[in-house]
Specification:
- The structure is a single chain.
- By secondary structure, this protein is an alpha/beta fold.
- The protein has two domains: 159 residues, 3-Layer(aba) Sandwich (Leucine Aminopeptidase, subunit E, domain 1); 305 residues, 3-Layer(aba) Sandwich (Aminopeptidase), CATH 3.40.630.10.
- The strands form four sheets. Strands 7, 8, 9, 10, 11, 14, 15, 16 and 18 form a nine-stranded mixed β-sheet that branches. The chain has a six-stranded mixed β-sheet with strand order 1-6-5-2-4-3, with helices on both faces.
- β15, α13 and β16 form a beta-alpha-beta unit.
- The longest helix is centred in the middle third of the chain and has 22 residues.
């Protein structure tokens, strides 16, 4: 997609479509909207009065532009004002998605609210995301050329900087990579094939290291190996280092660690059959960190960043891990496996220990870790836990700038006793009550540097189509990780 800005008023912009947000506060038309309506000869007012558009029934409406030079108007339900970058990202995504398969190639987007650089970068990322088609991963014979049409040029009606537009474009394309990786089926994307995909980042100047089971065994990664021991496809640990990682010397370095379960059957503690096909998305954390690393490498290769993706399949094979097994972590702790479906925390534990030993001074892990996160927060909000909270505030601010919604949860170490084991240092699955919080408490045992855990179980995948995205992977956390890494490089590198 091509992206450019124009400082002229929206009434003068030439484009196939001009997208206009309608906010809840516009029950009585605001001055800026009334001015555009007057220039159009009353096109917006007519669309609303005739019922072509109303914010109760419509996410958007494509109507005649009247006297405006734009071909048509796309009226967007923007909800209430506020959360500038989040709102802008959604508006960009809805706008381009509603034009997929139509004849429009040039879209002008007028935000009307929060027009600073973060909002515009988020809007561009959203606009790129709105053109995403999950069927493009494998192709469908019934997809016609007309169905594949999407917006190819975005005109930003405002004064964003070139840097903001470039950043938004790269983040949008990075999110598409994460979505492609997460949407790929388990018979297509094994741990080794994910490693092959990661090696493509060498073209962006990254160094890619892949550990096989023998190397992991030598390092004592008993937790990661135990999860994958029942699968036909053996585990891998993928590490992607940007040029700035080694150049940082003794300085601060950021490691982003993503849960990579190519398919999660639950193992011996097997999941219900209903919805199990969506467990290919349990690698969304790994997809996010790989995509974020590529994006940062293209924007700021000197950033001291490493992405780590522990990759496994969790299968109930003849050699599968059993409830009651005791395994030893890379940091020396012994873990009694009480539930083989609590596998994500096991692979993250060894991966975070390894990242620290590689020199990471700050860690963020991203994972589709707990079903209760999705139940509590739904598809729009990711939960995070931080130690110390100041590091969490930086991660939360990066998410805010990227147009993602992160919410802090308490790291209640008082729950540690629920993980006590009569046979080992810790069990991998505690009592059900408070399990979202307790999952983070478990992970906290395996990291000593400033750390944030982000649970994207609800945000990584949409189970139903939305106005802003199709069913399937969303690319959650990519933008937040990129914004964090770019700010980390400036502040700490």
């Amino acid at each position: 997609m091509r992206v450019r800005a124009t400082a002229g008023p929206p009434a003068t912009v030439e484009a196939d479509v001009l997208a206009v947000p309608i906010y809840r506060e516009d029950a009585e038309m605001a001055a800026d909207l009334a001015e555009l309506d007057a220039a159009s000869g009353g096109a917006i007012g007519r669309a609303i009065s005739w019922g072509d558009y109303n914010p109760i029934d419509h996410a958007s409406a494509l109507v005649d532009a009247g006297a405006l030079p734009a071909g048509r108007l796309l009226l967007l339900n923007a909800g209430a004002r506020g959360r500038g970058a989040f709102r802008a990202r959604r508006l960009g995504a809805v706008a381009t998605r509603q034009l997929n398969g139509r004849g429009a190639s040039t879209l002008a987007l007028w935000l009307r609210d929060g027009e600073g650089d973060p909002a515009w970068a988020a809007a561009v990322a959203g606009a790129v995301a709105g053109t995403y088609r999950p069927t493009a991963v494998y192709g469908r014979i019934r997809d016609t050329d007309a169905m594949k049409r999407s917006v190819t040029e975005l005109v930003c009606v405002g004064r964003p900087s070139e840097g903001a537009l470039a950043r938004g474009l790269e983040i949008g394309e990075g999110s598409a990579l994460a979505r492609d990786l997460a949407n790929r089926s388990a018979n297509d994307l094994s741990p080794e094939r994910m490693a092959d995909a990661a090696r493509e980042l060498e073209a962006d100047g990254c160094t890619v290291e892949v550990l096989d089971p023998e190397q992991m065994e030598e390092l004592g990664m008993g937790l990661l190996l135990g999860v994958g021991q029942g699968a036909a496809h053996p585990p891998r640990l993928i590490a992607i280092k940007l040029p700035g990682w080694d150049a940082a010397g003794a300085g601060d370095r950021l490691a982003i660690v993503g849960k990579g379960v190519c398919f999660d059957s639950g193992g011996i503690s097997i999941k219900p059959a209903e919805g199990m096909g969506d467990m290919k998305h349990d690698k969304s954390g790994a997809a996010a960190v790989i995509a974020a690393a590529r994006t940062v490498a293209r924007l700021a290769p000197d950033t001291p960043l490493m992405a780590v993706a522990p990759m496994v399949e969790n299968m109930p094979g003849g050699n599968a891990q059993r409830p009651g097994d005791v395994v030893k972590a890379m940091n020396g702790m012994t873990v009694e496996v009480t539930n083989t479906d609590a596998e994500g925390r096991l692979i993250l534990a060894d991966a975070m220990t390894w990242a620290e030993r590689q020199g990471a001074t700050h860690v963020v892990d991203v994972a589709t870790l707990t079903g209760v996160q999705a139940m509590a927060f739904g598809e729009s909000i990711s939960a995070y836990f931080a130690r110390p909270r100041e590091w969490g505030e930086r991660v939360g601010a990066a998410a805010e700038a990227a147009g993602e919604w992160f919410w802090e949860m308490p790291l209640a170490v008082e729950y540690r006793a629920s993980y006590d084991s009569p046979h080992a240092d810790i069990v991998n699955s505690g009592t059900r009550e408070g399990s979202l919080v307790k999952s983070a408490v478990f992970l906290s045992e395996f990291v000593t540097v400033p750390w944030v855990h982000v649970d994207i179980a609800g945000t990584a995948m949409l189970g139903t189509e939305k106005p802003y995205a199709p069913r399937g992977a969303t690319g959650a956390a990519v933008g937040a990780l990129v914004e964090l890494a770019l700010g980390f490089g400036r502040a700490d590198g």
